[in-house]
Amino acid sequence: MTPGNKLPNDYTGFTRRKFIYNSAVIGAGIVLSAPVVSEASGFIKADETYTVGQIMDMFIKEVPGGALTNTVDTLKAGNRDIKVTGVVTTMFATVAVIRKAINAGANFIIAHEPTFYNHPDETAWLQNDDVYQYKADLLKQHNIAVWRNHDYIHHLVPDGVTTGVLAQLVWQKYADQSVPNIITLPSATSLKNLIGYVKTRLNIEKVRYAGDPEQECTRVTLMLGAAGGRRQIEAISKEKPDVLICGEIQEWETAEYVRDARAKGNNLSLVVLGHIASEEPGSEFMRNWINQKFPGIKTVHIPCGNSLSFM
Q1: What is the phi/psi pair of residue 217, to 5°?
Q2: pTM of the predicted protein model
Q3: Among 12, 82, 154, 224, which has the minimal tally of Cβ within 10 Å of its Cβ?
């Protein structure tokens, strides 16, 4: 490996770490994909019971400004008075995740994204849809509450999802103190090696990218989830990163901007992780928060996985 492509000091031994990390992920995947979650018996009755509403209110109290007047962070199923037997955190409350929650004896799912296929979870247009009816009935039959925690976790200071991602990437000390999604690596590494590291740490099979795999990267801008093309392009223009790592894009926007910037001669690359993969650590953050605030309630993070496959 040439000096210009050397990984940052903290990443030495990357190949060995990749093997160890993948082994751990595979092991965890076996547990979570089993017909009955092996941790089911671990859901214990707390000395003191808590309701769905109490847990929601405790989290909202930690958000600067408190309750939002205009938010999608509402209950999608169940009600505030349900006594919590166990909590599942996840990106999407899919049917598979709901079934695992049922098997585990958990009746409160905290999801980051919509449950019913549109941002505000409007359901009037789905009333005659059999998929919607099946999912809604499954939740109702088992008295499961689903709360979307999207706006609130992003309103934490610092942003809870970004905090979770930085922790999983082990990039906390490289993040800008005032703008933590701007990362300055301690030494340059090639785009190829950077992509390999990110894929391993975030357990991503494949990513899309634009750029030269041998390009040296030091300055990284993270824009997780679906920030939108204009915000992504404005961030590139303002922050001048070597690489923008984002969740998802509109293909006619950011990717085309990066293509033209490279043709102009800019040292710029783009890495598209996928929406779920880019924000999954935020649900881990949420699980850890509940473990800290409500240690008597058994809480588990269940990855929903990618809805799309690669061929």
Answers
A1: -125, 130
A2: 0.85
A3: 12
